[in-house]
Amino acid sequence: MNRERALGLAAAVLAGGVVTALVAYALRRRGAGAPSTADAPPTPAQPPSQPRPTPSPPATEAQSHAKATTHYLAMIARGPLPSAAQSHDSSRATALYFAVHGLELLGALDAVLAGERRRAVVEWIYANQAASGGFAGSPFAPRSVRAGHVVATYSSLATLLALGDDLSRVDRAALTRWLRRLQHQGAGCFRATEEEGGGEADLRFAYAACACSFMLGDWSGVDADACARFAGACRNADGGFGLVPGAETHGGALYTAVASLTLLGKLRECLPAEADVRSLARLCAEMQSGEDGGFCGRLAKPSDVCYGFWVGASLAMLGRAHVVNRDALRRFTRASAHAIGGFSKTRDEMPDPLHTYFGLWCDAVLCRVAAPDPIAAALGVSERTSRRLAVLLMGRGAR
Fold first, then answer.
1. Predicted local confidence at residue 57, as pLDDT
2. Domains of the chain: which residue ranges?
3. Does domain 3-17+60-396 have CATH number 1.50.10.20?
4. Interatomic CA distance for residues 92 and 80, integer angstroms
5. Where are the alpha helices (DSSP H) in 107-171?
6. Mean pLDDT of 236-240
């Protein structure tokens, strides 16, 4: 798999070697050098005159898992990656995005990344800014020849916002010019990078371009009408969306279409009738399994934690989050929680950053909030980050 596709298909990369290495690293750190209780000296009894302190109540299973997940994501956020994962360094900006936003949902971001440590992460992200526009996934090449990738750019901007940065150091002029070069003028879709012809062009990269433009408050790099037409052309007879016109309906493609149109402010142009919204919402609801409570990417396929986000966030943007069977989804999601922290794709698999963040989102947002913020859902960020961005855009004035 080449670097461009690895970033475009972040799930495939992050569920692969980098995740295995991170998990193995965590297990080694937890197990290495632990003292044996058999060899430990006995704890002396307290004198009778001194009352024993009241022991803290035992942590619940959810509290223990939240603590373990905080350690798991902190290891990824603080970096560097373990040596066994260095071959996947080009995806590091995406892994950092999942870790930072997961920590924010846990309420642990300010404790894990504070002061100099937070500033170091912000500087690392800005070090990946490419002279020709956008951000790379890591500083693997000199800036003069570094190529931006639209998914890494989206991940970098969203992470900077979560860390409290105002994006003032983003080279907006270069970034918007770069986005214009990535968009196919006829079809309206986007490719991921200028390298090697840019590779595939589909809704994933159109979504990333829309998210970048929304976060910057500057749409001068996107032909919005052409992009919306492309998203509409990807709609299928069943009401769902594929990645390109004629492709089968898929939960991930559905999300990128609905989110792109939401950020463009053109969702109701593509779905003008209430019947169109009901049809899409019904399809999303049918993607939730009546057996295990999880969501699938295609009807009659196995459930996967990540589709709780892809499909659930789509329902939130449609204003139909209430159709989700939240108790069933919560049980499915928590069944995928791993003992070392994080969430896995399904029960009994190893955790990874992508499924961890989406599992946290399902548990903390979709299963608890009656009407999730549609912009936060469209950007894949917390409501706190969405509110912070709204304040920045109000002060800056969107174009």
1. 52
2. 3-17+60-396
3. yes
4. 9
5. 109-112, 115-126, 150-162
6. 95
